[in-house]
Amino acid sequence: MDRIRTHKDLKVFQLSFKAGMEVFSISKLFPKEETYSLTWQIRRSSRSVSGNIAEAFRKRKYPKAFVAKLSDAEGEAAETQVWLDYALSCQYIDEGIYNPINDKYGHIIGMLVNMSIKPENWSF
């Protein structure tokens, strides 16, 4: 924990930020008629993951608040997976795009759950 000074030092933050940027790139493939629905929804949820992780990190001295924000991040990651499911089902993306990014969000969710189980490991 000594080397973690900001939320940007957390591997889960780094992974979620990178994944959010990948979702942004992927969403450019969506048709124009999806701009106000799927495109905005997936961009919002994917960006909220890293945003909530940053908030959680700042609240880590309050275990319940920390866990609540991690839970929010976990929910946003799961929501992003649902939007990816829609993008695949609507054939906006193929499995070659879908599988790696969906797996990345699964890994993010696992990391968030592990942090939530032992919030005392993240306090200072």
Can you tell me about this structure?
- 33% of the residues are buried.
- With 124 residues, the chain is mainly α.
- α3 packs antiparallel against α4.
Summary tags:
single chain, 124 residues, mainly alpha, de novo design (two linked rop proteins), 4 helices, elongated
Provide the low-confidence segments as ranges: none
Number of strands: 0
Radius of gyration: 15 Å
Identify the CATH architecture: Up-down Bundle
Brief rundown of the structure:
The protein is mostly helical and 124 residues long. The protein has a single domain (7-122), classed as 23S rRNA-intervening sequence (de novo design (two linked rop proteins)). The protein contains four helices and no strands.
SSE topology:
Blueprint lengths: L10 H17 L7 H24 L4 H27 L5 H23 L7
Helix pairs in contact: 1-2, 1-4, 2-3, 3-4
